Amino acid sequence: MASTSDIRNGLCMMHNGDIYSVVEFLHVKPGKGNAFVRTKLKSLTSGKVVEYTFPSGHKIEDVRVERRKFQYLYNDESGYNFMDIETYDQVSLNENMLDRPDFLKEGSEIEILFHAEKNIPLTAEMPASIVLEVTYTEPGVRGDTATNVTKPATVETGAEVKVPIFINQGDRIKIDTKTGSYLERVKS
Fold first, then answer.
1. What is the mean pLDDT of residues 36-51?
2. Residue in 154, 150, 132 with CA at minimum distance from that of residue 141
3. Domains, the chain, with CATH or none
4. What pTM did the predictor assign?
């Protein structure tokens, strides 16, 4: 058992019969009244984000999780299939357990959080950014650079990303996996 003073980003806890991860938290000590902790919790089973306020000193049941590195293999009707890099065990995850499955490239490495006691996968975390090749984009119009002009581009995984006008087909670009936005062009 832990208390509200142990709350930090990434802490996994049991709350209302579900396992949640702390996304944001703020310890508040108002001028009058008791202190409390305002949190944003993400459900590891459904992906839903909820806000909850805990009174200061409230006991919480923390859940021990393990992070393991996995390699993306393929996608089929059973879900997205991954292989443990160390043991070569395979696991299949549903699409709702992944944040941005449209950026998964065969051979990509991700981290999967497992419930330590039950050994079941809870959620998958993509790397902060990923480098992909642009497979299709319209050519940029010369002289159309007065403002930050973007155009749609399709990358090798089939996802569509807004890119600057100077990006061409065949270029490799770095993409932020949280927002799905273009970060920079990568030199080969």
1. 88
2. 150
3. 2-62 (2.30.30.30), 65-125 (2.40.50.140), 129-186 (2.40.50.140)
4. 0.75
